[in-house]
Structures are given as C-alpha cells and as structure tokens.
Amino acid sequence: MTTTLTKGPYKADHVGSFLRPERIKEARVLHQNGDITREQLRNIEDEEITRLVEKQKEAGLQAVTDGEFRRAWWHFDFLSQLEGVELYETNAGIQFNGVQTKAHGIKVVGKLDFSDHPMLEDYKFLHDLAGDHVAKFTIPSPNMLFFRGTIDEKVYPDKDEFFNDLIAVYQKAIQAFYDAGCRYLQLDDTAWAVFFSEKGQEQIAAKGYSIDELLERFTRAINESIAKKPEDMVITMHICRGNFKSSYTASGGYDNASEYIFGKLKVDGLFLEFDDERSGGFEPLRHVNRSDLQIVLGLITSKFGELEDPKLIKERIREASQYVPLDQICLSPQCGFSSTEEGNLLTEEQQWEKIRHVVSIANEVLKLNIL
User: Cobalamin-independent methionine synthase MetE C-terminal/archaeal domain: from which residue to which, for each copy (predicted)?
Assistant: First the structure.
C-alpha cells in the first residue's frame, strides 16, 4: 500500500533552520557596524533564502522553510517583537553542555498583543518562493514566553491574566499567518524538557509549580492557542532538549510527560528528538491515541556530519512501529541545523547529505509503508 500525505508533516520532513551562509553572517556584522543599511541586509537575506529554497526542492523535500536566515535566535526574535515583550542583556548566557550562548533574555514589560509582526512579511516572501511546494514557518511555542521569559509582576500581578493574554496573542498570530497564506506552522518548544530529568523537575519546583500543574498549563497553552485554527491549516510542534553549537542542555526520555504530549495535545504532528540515548526509548509512544496524529521521528542527528547507517535507522523505525502504526510515522533530523545564527558543527555539504539521507530512507520505507 502506498502512503502519501497531501499536507504536512511529510514522510520526509525537517525541523526548519539551516546553517547560515557566510555571506549572511558577514552582512549582519556590516549592518551592526553601520556599514550597510537594513534594506541592503534584507536584500542579501532575500537572495540567500531564494537559493536555500531551491536547494530544499532539489533535495526532495515537499515543505520548504526560510532556514530562519533572518533570525539570530530561533525564539527570541519572534517573542521580542510581540507587543509588551523586549530583548535584554543578561548577566550570562545560557549554559549548554560545555558552551555558552550570548547573554540575552526576554522580558514582559507591558500588556501582550500581536499586531504588524515583521515575521508576517518574512513568511510572505517564503510563500512566494514555495511554488508547488509547501511553505513551512516556525515560531516558538507560547510556553517559551510563559516558562522561559521574565514577567514584570507590576504589569501582570495575576498569573492567569498573563496566561489568558498569551493565549489570545497566539490565536491572533495563528490567524494572521493563515491570512498571509500559511498552511503549515510549527511551534518549537524546549520547555517540555523540564519534565524529562530530575534537574528539570527542580526548575519546576523553583518556579513554584507542581509537575501536574505545569503539565496542565503547558498543555492548555498549546491546545487553547490552536483551538481556533482554520481546518485546512496544519500545526505541528517540535520538542527539543536544546541545540547550540552541536550541544544540548537537557537529557531524559519522554516518560514523565508522555500521557500529555502524546495523549492530550491537539497538534497535527509532533517532531521528536530520538537521535541518541538522551531521548530514551519509544515506549512513551504507546500513549498516542489518535489515528490522525503524525509522529515525526528525529532519528538523523543535525549535530554532527557523519551519516547514520540506514539499516540502523530502519530498525529504529521498526521499533517505533510497535507503538504507532507505520502510516503515522515520518522521518526528520532531530532538530534544526542552526537554532541560533552560530550553527552546529558540521559543513553545509554535510547538512545537505543529512537532508538527502532523510529523503532517501523515507522514500524507501515510509512512502511505501513497507519495512
């Protein structure tokens, strides 16, 4: 039996970000130094995104992204341009496993709202390039502002008021992207990783929540944010344990949150990190209780250039199919190649080899629904 998907996530898919070309990195420095205008920088970004989209098509992908080429961060760029939110310099960067990011954070300084967000224009540019392919756009989950942002208690003394405003902002954002033509939107969310380890659970307690209370909050944030989405719009979620210069911040399987992630979230698909032992086994997938939920297995790592043995990837797909039917399984890299502008430690050619690897294996196994 042949299995095809007419909308995302696709049997061969990807998370979204790609390594920034040197030309973009150089142009951003020139712009920061005042040597080129914002318009000149955007023209360079336009040209490089156009090349990127063509490369994605040539590699065999059905969904194409702009590679997040206009962003420094996968999340801060979007969140800091919401009304009531700003980017600020912190005392230190985020600690990954041996490396540290730039010292930036986000804080809520006013009432939240969504209007005239610059990324709507970014999406429209991608949309025009997509042609007969599908333009996929990625934004951070509402949980990233709720759990990772700093909230001024003078602005929001009541947690529930903040939470309700945040959901309303995302409902407006989703409708705005839809009106701009978007039919495939992805919510990126590293916050779920706090449930996966003891270290994360200590962070939960430090913020004054119980595990069950936070699971309910996270789930509600997603489900209510997407509750009004048009029927012909696909919304997926990517769950990650951190991705910066080929490093990570968290470890642990999905077990502690699996009933919520796989059984209660109402997204159309889940992009899941499964590229090494840090992500645990496939047993949590037993909580998948919907035949229309696509499970995108991130079995190909974006952190290093060496290609995985296709036989091993097929065996792992077979293991996952013990819990989820094969026609609900897709394949992708476990994360983007450049969650921040610095990028992971592999070459552009290795990046494209990884994408072609995903497409090749998916075409052989998943599109034919045969293992």
Answer: 15-341
- The two tokens of residue 166 are 């945040």
Could you tell me if 178 and 235 are in contact, meaning their C-beta atoms sit under 8 angstroms apart?
Answer: no
Where are the strands (E) in the chain, listed by range? 63-64, 83-89, 104-113, 134-140, 150-151, 184-189, 234-239, 269-273, 294-300, 329-333
Per-residue pLDDT tens for 264-291? 999 999 999 997 777 789 999 999 999 9
Within 10 angstroms of residue 198's Cβ, the number of other Cβ atoms is 7
Range of the domain at 246: 22-70+115-140+154-365
Backbone angles phi, psi at 295, to 5 degrees: -105, 115
Return the H-helix or E-strand segment holding 129.
Answer: helix 119-130
Rounded Cα–Cα distance for residues 263 and 142 (Å): 19
**C-beta of residue 195 within 8 angstroms of C-beta of residue 256:** yes
Q: 100 and 94 in contact (C-beta within 8 Å)?
A: yes
Task: Give the span between the Cα atoms of 100 and 114, in whole angstroms.
Answer: 31
14 is a domain residue:
no
Residue 370 lies in a domain: no
Q: What is the CATH number of the domain that holds 52?
A: 3.20.20.210
What is the number of domains present in the chain?
Answer: 1
Calculate the alpha carbon distances from 17 to 150, 181, 356 in Å: 26, 20, 16
Helix and strand totals (H; E) in the chain: 11, 10
Q: Is residue 3 part of a domain?
A: no
**Is the N-terminal amide bond of 140 cis, ω within 30° of 0?**
no
Average pLDDT of the segment spanning 112-139: 96
Angle, alpha carbons 36-39-45 (nearest 5°): 90
Average pLDDT value for residue range 170-195: 95
Cβ–Cβ under 8 Å, residues 40 and 112: no
Indicate if the pLDDT at residue 249 is higher than 70: no
In a domain, 146, yes or no: no
